[in-house]
Amino acid sequence: MRRDLIHRIGLILSGDETNSALDIESIQESLSTLSAIFSSQSLARAFIHFCRHRCSTAYMLQMETGLPETSAYRALKRLRSLGLIEPVYRIPIHGLRKGGPRPIIWGLKGCYQPKDVARCIQHHRRLLSPKFRLAENIAQIILDRYIKPQNIHEISYRTILIILREFRVPFNLYDIAHLTATSLSEKGVKVWR
Predict the structure, then answer these.
(1) Could you report how far apart the first and last alpha carbons of the chain are, in Å?
(2) Does position 1 have pLDDT exceeding 50, yes or no?
(3) What's the confidence (pLDDT) of residue 100?
């Protein structure tokens, strides 16, 4: 988001008397922008997603917020028209795919850094992989059913394999186990090999 908008909103909310330089027009512009953003639930969800991650693609927006494809693209268009996001990078297409548009990474104006763009590219490619999505779901199930209820912060790789056998995954068991272990590690769970 534009830093000046964030700064003005902070000044409005602080109520500090020393901020008398803040004129009524800038307050009205800030509140008008916020009103436009939060008038639509899908636009608000997209904006909050950008505030948390600073960069995103349309596909990531769909997968992580649950927005339908048309709503995600409409939200991107509206956020761009409000001057809050900008196109940052087009992800190169690898593999056998031919034609079609290359995915665009959108960044929150003035807030993203190169590391955010790199993380976005990696996450976008992961989300395109059905193996990764399955491993993410299984990692979340392991967190919800085993890790959190028992209040533990570690799991063995063997235990992950045993749990995966119960799910009868349609892919190579060891591929999914590795991806699940990686996902759990990223979520702060120690995986013993």
Answers:
(1) 42
(2) no
(3) 58
Query: What is the pLDDT of the chain when averaged over all its residues?
Result: 85
β-pairing, 104-108 vs 190-192, is unpaired
180 phi, psi to nearest 5 deg:
-65, -45
Helices (H), 68-189: 69-81, 114-128, 130-142, 148-150, 157-167, 173-186
38-128 belongs to CATH 1.10.10.10: yes
- pLDDT confidence tier of residue 75, bands split at 50, 70 and 90: very high
List, in order, residues 6 or more apart from 16 with CB less than 8 Å away.
none
Domain ranges, ordered by start, for the chain: 38-128, 130-192
Residue-wise pLDDT tens digits, 155-182: 999 999 999 998 888 899 999 999 999 9
As a whole number of angstroms, the distance between CA 26 and CA 112 comes to 24
Considering Cα of 182, then 188, then 189, then 193, what sign does the dihedral take?
A: positive
Tell me the C-alpha distance between 160 and 163, whole Å: 5
What pLDDT does residue 22 have?
56
Half-sphere CA count of 90, side-chain side, radius 13 A: 5
CB atoms within 10 A of CB 44: 14
d(CA 141, CA 146) in angstroms, rounded, equals 8
Q: CA 28: distance to chain centroid?
A: 30
